[in-house]
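User: Okay, second chain of the day. Same drill as before: sequence in, structure tokens out.
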Amino acid sequence: MHCPFCRHADSRVIDSRTSEDGSSIRRRRECPECGQRFSTSETASLAVTKRGGTSEPFSREKIVAGVRKACQGRPVTEDDLARLAQTVEETIRATGVAQVEAQEVGLAILEPLRKLDEVAFMRFASVYQEWETLEDFEAAIAVLKVERENQASSTAK
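Assistant: Same drill. Structure tokens below.
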């Protein structure tokens, strides 16, 4: 780490602290050359590989923008969307890999979106999973109904 004051090529870490959300580390450093102190912030990078092979940094904003379309006209707030994007990012980071396929990001969106709003889930899944027939929708609705019945029977016990 270069000193921002004298450009010396080395520095000494004095203190390290994790941010509140755990996504970054703040380090307090001191330059052995000039004695000045400065702070750095370190984050683990997460990249998404698109279908065409290009790679771009993971973006919560892109998650929110994509899911917002599916939630249009539904009782879903911006805070709900932000929490969903955070959940998706945490799920992907928990895998421990620095590069994920766009397909994996889409799959990570489905479950939290289903819990948030079933209609928005159906909208998103129909585009994401490229449903082409009425039978595709019927099969997904049948699965949702079975899951809802299983949840109702397990909470009644």
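The radius of gyration is 22 Å.

User: Thanks, on to the next one.
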